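Pasting as-is:
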Amino acid sequence: MYEEYFGLSGAPFKLNPDPRFFFGSRSHNKAMAYLHYGLKQAEGFIVITGPIGAGKSMLIGHLLDQLNRSNVVAAHLLTSNVKPDDLLGHILSAFRIEPEGEGRAGQLAAFEDFLFDQLNRGRRALLVMDEAQNLPHETLEELRMLSNMDYDGTPLFQVFLVGQPEFRNVIDAPEMEQLRQRVIASYHLENLSADETKEYVLHRLSVAGWLEDPDFSLDAFSAIYSATKGLPRQINTLCNRLMLYCFLEKHREVTREIVEIVLTELREEKLAPDGVRPGAMPAVKSVDGQAQTPSDGVAAVSLDAARQRAPDDAREEANAKDETPNGEASNEGASATPKPEPPSSAPPVSSSSVFDRLRASRRPRQEAEEADPPRHEATLSEVASAIAAVTNETEKPALDGVEQSAAGDHETTSISSIAQMARDLRLAQNNAPQWRKSVAGSLNDTRDELKQAHASVSRLRKKMADIDKRRINNRAEIVDSLSRAETLLREIRDSWQ
């Protein structure tokens, strides 16, 4: 939705893990080093734990994306709470193995054949078990027994266990002693620091082709870190809504105030990050005019500030909701004695929901599209002329002359189209400083492509000329050979006579 408005190539804050957006923080790089160490050892268990939303799935996706498929065949098993009797069937399904026999004996024979076949191909099998904290102790013991398969001391099967922090308590149980002895490395993912949170947001934006629109202020990054505590998934949720808010309200910069407005909306929707208490009330003005902040320490904006940023059609809805518990509208300054505040359990007053602003932003755009008459389709030469006119310092006099010359002739619509395009381009240049850089980059890319095409055509012509030359030489050689053959036949005929 907002991607096209801000010129992005894709959604920068998707919740689904995408290895292209992997950010190597200090903690994530260390966890990746442990995983590569385990791959090099080619045996045992590697345990990676971390809180919900810390980026464990992104870490595994990045690892699988880096694997050399000629050496390792990997499977990612997402099923949790697997019973011991069902574990082998899930593993076969993950590796896409179909057993020929029936029952556990057939499954085990098929798995052994698969492992020996991979060994003959110079590969070993790697299984990544996600959500490992839900696995029963008996299933973990069954997994340990399967990992014992080897051939003349060469391990055939390796397992990476990924789970939430409580999985560390699972493997610390007394009955898990044998499994603990098979764990060669274990690491716990940590949250991002304040600096890493800023770098994380900028990294994901840059991967999506961000051109500093909207820009992020320093206090906005501080507010983002305070609300999310450095958890990547919560950062994605908050920043995704920040981008949507800037698109709806036509903001070109994300500030602390905007972050607080969006946090207020998320609290109302019960989607606020864990770092923000869901029941927190927004700041309200007291009798002396001073703003009172929530008790949880997270700064919130007043209702007046929120209304200033809401569309006109949403302000009436916010004003209608701004009433006292007995149904009478509040009026500051009407009485020296303030009325009692509503209890903290009452829901905060909302300026307007994000969906209301979305509908409000669509209506003017649809009306403008219906009222706007169809424009003249400009040619490529007209576009080039308009761009040249924008970069010319004497642009306005030239355009005035073009408009005067086109006023009396209805058939010269292309000239007026150039003037209209130049004005549009000049307006776009004032509103978006990055526009000229983007157009210049596009022109440079097009020029480079044309040069490459010209070079390819030149090489093709040269090859065709060489082919023609060789064909002429071959024809001359054939004619010469035929002449010598005729001369030889004639000499033989004369000698015979």
